[in-house]
């Protein structure tokens, strides 16, 4: 009945979680709001905030799980990918904790952990399954053959899907991070109001930078023709942009599922919180005869529960690392 402490600090969320025998008993997330006024995450500020938040987050995770820290069997932490200064805080904390308590240390790949969030609660997908991982830094199509046997089938050649949302929001004058706001405004708009281009990228790779440029030119031109257009049509613009981002993602997902011939299809990462994507995937799944897996909202965006779960399965496999482990800003699945 191993108890695992999970630590996540790859970007701007400091998170600590406790799993007991593969079930989550606490998942504390300290958001950093300081970045809002800069329109994006400022790495130096993120590291400092992690430094302040990490001990209170771990203390609270232990308290809420109603365990004593002596009972923790191992500590799992995000090794990468992410911002190096942010990763260093979680890595250093985890190393010190493991050393002080003389327990094993487990390194976790953040992108694998987003996928393994599907094993937090039933029903769980069956191997092999396909996962579309969409976050602020990544857009990946992954064939998941086992807990840590993952094959990258496609990825973005430029911006990530989350960046496409966030950069569009910036063009529309919305604060950072704009993804959730576009989602909200889109619910009041008509997704067919405007048509944005779908990039013609061969194979299973993605591209979002052309879409961003098309949106910028569209908004500039409309504003010239009809001043105030953006404000009066915000819902329709958001709904139309979201419609296009979702169709780019799902067209590739459909193609990948056909190519590898799987029935279980999942989404993961921050953008999987998007209601347009969730609804469109459910509809597509029904049409294609897939079993569709969508994480609960709190397990879509960055969290330590997914790190603790990944740590749990590595603990069972006795997959530990030494004190010489270093964080990796780039780290493939
Ligand atoms: O996985 P995540 O929390 O952090 C990274 O590992 O990058 O993903 C954050 C991304 C941001 O780009 C944010 O705008 C996007 O997920 N996001 C959303 C929604 N919620 C979060 N995008 C669209 N709709 C949402 N509801
Ligand atoms: Zn993430």
TrEMBL record:
It holds the Pfam family TsaD. Its main location: cytoplasm. GO terms for cellular component: cytoplasm. Binds 1 Fe(2+) ion per subunit. It is found in: Cytoplasm. The keyword Acyltransferase applies. It comes from the Bacteria. Its EC number is 2.3.1.234. Its cofactor is Fe(2+). GO terms for molecular function: iron ion binding; tRNA N(6)-L-threonylcarbamoyladenine synthase activity. The keyword Signal does not apply. It is an enzyme of class 2 (transferase). Keywords: Acyltransferase, Cytoplasm, Iron, Metal-binding, Transferase, tRNA processing. GO terms for biological process: tRNA threonylcarbamoyladenosine modification. Fe cation binds at residues 110, 114, 302. Required for the formation of a threonylcarbamoyl group on adenosine at position 37 (t(6)A37) in tRNAs that read codons beginning with adenine. Is involved in the transfer of the threonylcarbamoyl moiety of threonylcarbamoyl-AMP (TC-AMP) to the N6 group of A37, together with TsaE and TsaB. TsaD likely plays a direct catalytic role in this reaction. PANTHER family: TRNA N6-ADENOSINE THREONYLCARBAMOYLTRANSFERASE (PTHR11735), TRNA N6-ADENOSINE THREONYLCARBAMOYLTRANSFERASE, MITOCHONDRIAL (PTHR11735:SF6). Belongs to the KAE1 / TsaD family. This is tRNA N6-adenosine threonylcarbamoyltransferase. It comes from Parapedobacter koreensis. The gene is tsaD.
């Amino acid at each position: 009945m191993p108890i695992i402490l999970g630590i996540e600090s790859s970007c701007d969320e400091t998170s600590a979680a406790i799993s007991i025998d593969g079930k989550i008993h606490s998942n504390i997330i300290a958001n950093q709001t300081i970045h809002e006024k800069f329109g994006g995450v400022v790495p130096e500020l993120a590291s400092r905030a992690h430094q302040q938040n990490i001990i209170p987050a771990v203390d609270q995770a232990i308290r809420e799980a109603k365990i004593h820290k002596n009972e923790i069997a191992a500590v799992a932490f995000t090794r990468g990918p992410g911002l190096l200064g942010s990763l260093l805080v979680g890595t250093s904390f985890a190393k010190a904790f493991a050393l002080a308590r003389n327990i094993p240390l487990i390194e976790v790949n953040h992108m694998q952990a987003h996928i393994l969030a599907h094993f937090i609660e039933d029903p769980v997908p069956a191997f092999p399954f396909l996962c579309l991982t969409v976050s602020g830094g990544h857009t990946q199509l992954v064939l998941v053959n086992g807990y840590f046997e993952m094959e990258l089938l496609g990825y973005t050649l430029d911006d990530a899907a989350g960046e496409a949302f966030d950069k569009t929001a910036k063009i529309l004058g919305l604060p950072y991070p704009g993804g959730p706001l576009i989602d909200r405004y889109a619910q009041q708009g008509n997704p067919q109001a405007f048509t944005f281009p779908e990039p013609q990228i061969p194979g299973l790779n993605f591209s979002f930078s052309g879409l961003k440029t098309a949106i910028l030119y569209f908004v500039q031109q409309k504003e010239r023709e009809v001043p105030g257009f953006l404000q009066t049509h915000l819902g329709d613009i958001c709904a139309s942009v979201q419609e296009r981002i979702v169709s780019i993602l799902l067209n590739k997902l459909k193609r990948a599922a056909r190519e590898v011939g799987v029935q279980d299809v999942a989404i993961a990462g921050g953008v999987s919180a998007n209601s347009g994507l969730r609804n469109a995937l459910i509809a597509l799944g029904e049409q294609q005869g897939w079993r569709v897996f969508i994480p609960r909202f709190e397990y879509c965006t960055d969290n330590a529960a997914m790190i603790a779960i990944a740590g749990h399965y590595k603990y069972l496999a006795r997959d530990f690392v030494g004190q010489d482990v270093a964080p990796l800003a780039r780290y493939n699945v």
